[in-house]
TrEMBL record:
Protein name stated in the entry: stearoyl-CoA 9-desaturase
Catalytic activity: octadecanoyl-CoA + 2 Fe(II)-[cytochrome b5] + O2 + 2 H(+) = (9Z)-octadecenoyl-CoA + 2 Fe(III)-[cytochrome b5] + 2 H2O
Note on domains (UniProt): The histidine box domains are involved in binding the catalytic metal ions.
Family: Belongs to the fatty acid desaturase type 1 family.
Domain Fatty acid desaturase: 70-274
Cross-referenced PROSITE patterns: FATTY_ACID_DESATUR_1
Lineage: Eukaryota, Metazoa, Chordata, Craniata, Vertebrata
EC number(s) recorded for this UniProt protein: 1.14.19.1
Compartments, as annotated in UniProt: Endoplasmic reticulum membrane
Organism of derivation: Gouania willdenowi (Blunt-snouted clingfish)
Length: 327
């Protein structure tokens, strides 16, 4: 993809904010209300209970069977792919094309992740890219680590998020029947995929206690996926190097790359958001890229977009760190 095409791609990504998220943090304008600091106490209480339950789940690990632990890791990977390969790389950026069976799988995996439905996730992510590090950015990292990580879910949205978001073009999402089906049945799909299936399988198949099955593969796993995703918004916007564009906040962060299965090459991603690999290094520490490559091998995905090495080198020389050793 040429630099001209890159600029066109950036100008084409224009979202909208028309509905409320699963967590109630949409700002409703009222006379005399200061929007950025309106705390949504329901969300605060839910997040506290969730994390207390996850900490308790950690203490149950020694009592869990090895099969339950393996099942928990499997559920972590599936639900993480629902965000990284699904809501992010496929539906937010259209960085590759997926067949109907793959889109259905990623939709189911996305419900297991329980981070708002695909439409809302992709909408907010497009706003984030277009207005990164401004008041229109849903998780503006300039407001600090806590806000970018979890605080943005605990307060009502800044009005700029909605105002700027209304201009975004989301016809591709509205036309996707898988996305719209999930949106219609999102709450029951979350109850089934995020909580019931992860809990039921180890209890039914190998006799794990329902107590352990709920707190490990369901609650603890869900909390870990949430925080791994949030680290992309927080840590990867604050700590690390910027070899591709030193004028933007997003960084290359190896810890985030590991925990978020490939999403920590964030300076690269914000410089070249249409690259399906979110990195110039292919599958290196990038489980999501490996997954997409495997889907292409199976014929379930095609047309992955990739930035040419020449364009990467040119961008490094123009806006990045000329000492960076490009892959």
């Amino acid at each position: 993809m040429t630099e001209a095409e890159e600029l066109k791609h950036r100008s084409d990504v224009r979202p909208q904010a028309t509905t409320e998220d699963v967590f109630d943090h949409t700002y409703k304008e009222k006379e005399g209300l200061k929007p950025p600091r309106v705390i949504v106490w329901k969300n605060v209480i839910l997040m506290i209970l969730l994390h207390v339950g996850a900490v308790y789940g950690i203490f149950l690990i020694p009592s869990a069977s090895s099969l339950t632990l393996l099942w928990s890791v499997f559920c972590f990977l599936v639900s993480a792919l629902g965000i990284t390969a699904g809501a992010h790389r496929l539906w937010s950026h259209r960085s590759y094309k997926a067949s109907l069976p793959l889109r259905i799988f990623l939709c189911v995996a996305n419900s297991m992740a329980f981070q708002n439905d695909i439409f809302e996730w992709a909408r907010d992510h497009r706003v984030h890219h277009k207005y990164s590090e401004t008041d229109a950015d849903p998780h503006n990292a300039v407001r600090g680590f806590f806000f970018a990580h979890i605080g943005w879910l605990l307060v009502r949205k800044h009005p700029d998020v909605i105002e700027k978001g209304r201009n975004l073009e989301l016809k591709d999402l509205l036309a996707d029947k898988v996305v719209m089906f999930q949106r219609k049945y999102y709450k029951p799909s979350v109850l089934l995929m995020c909580f019931f299936i992860p809990m039921f399988v180890p209890w039914y198949l190998w006799g794990e206690s329902l107590w352990v099955a709920y707190f490990l593969p369901a609650l603890l796993r869900y909390t870990l996926v949430l925080n791994a995703t949030w680290l992309v918004n927080s840590a990867a916007h604050m700590w690390g190097n910027r070899p591709y564009d030193k004028s933007i906040n997003p960084r290359e962060n190896k810890f985030v790359t590991f925990s978020a299965i490939g999403e920590g090459y964030h300076n690269y991603h914000h410089t070249f958001p249409y690259d399906y690999a979110t990195s110039e290094f292919g599958c290196k520490l990038n489980i999501t890229t490996c997954f997409i490559d495997f889907m292409c091998f199976l014929g379930l995905a095609k047309d992955p977009k990739k930035v040419s090495r020449e364009l990467i080198l040119a961008r490094i020389q123009r806006t990045g760190d000329s000492n960076h050793r490009s892959g």
